[in-house]
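Forum: Protein Structure Q&A
Topic: Joint prediction for protein chains with partners

I've read a bunch of threads here and the consensus seems to be that you should model interacting components together rather than docking separate models afterwards. I'd like to see that in practice. Below is the full input, 160 residues plus whatever partners are listed. Could one of the regulars post the assembled result?
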Amino acid sequence: MIKARITVTLKNGVLDPQGKAIEHALSGLGFDGVGQVRQGKVFDVELSESDKGKAEADLKAMCDKLLANTVIENYSVTLT
Amino acid sequence: MIKARITVTLKNGVLDPQGKAIEHALSGLGFDGVGQVRQGKVFDVELSESDKGKAEADLKAMCDKLLANTVIENYSVTLT
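Posted by a regular:
Agreed with the consensus. Here's the joint model:
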C-alpha cells in the first residue's frame, strides 16, 4: 500500500479572500509582522497500488480530473 | 523574512465526510484501489521575523489560537 499527500495551493496572483481574513484575524490577535497568508488544501490518499511510478501517475490524474482546478490552482504530489 | 507552511489535518478517528465523498468520486471516475482519503488544510504564512525559534513559537501559538481546532485536529509547522 502506498500513502501519498497531495497539496493544492492557489496560483500566484489569484485572489485569496480566506487568506486575507486570516491575516486580519492574526493581526487582531496581536501577532505582529504577519505578511501574506494563503490557504490551500491537503489530501492524504491511500492506494492499494504497489508500483510507485503507476501510483504517482494515478495521483496526478486524480488532481487533474477532480482534486485541483488547474486554471487557478497548483498541485504537488509526495509519496510518504 | 521567514516563510512557513502549516498543515492542519483531522485526528485519527474523527469522521471526515468530505474525504469519504472524494473516495466515492474517485471510484466513480474509474480510479480503482483508492483506500482512505482524508482532507486537511494548509496555510502558507510569511513572517517579518528573522529569528527562527521565535517564528516557530509564534506559528504554534497561531495554530493553537486560530488556525487549528486542537480537539479534533493535529497541526505541523515547517519553515520553508
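The first helix of chain B runs from residue 17 to 28.
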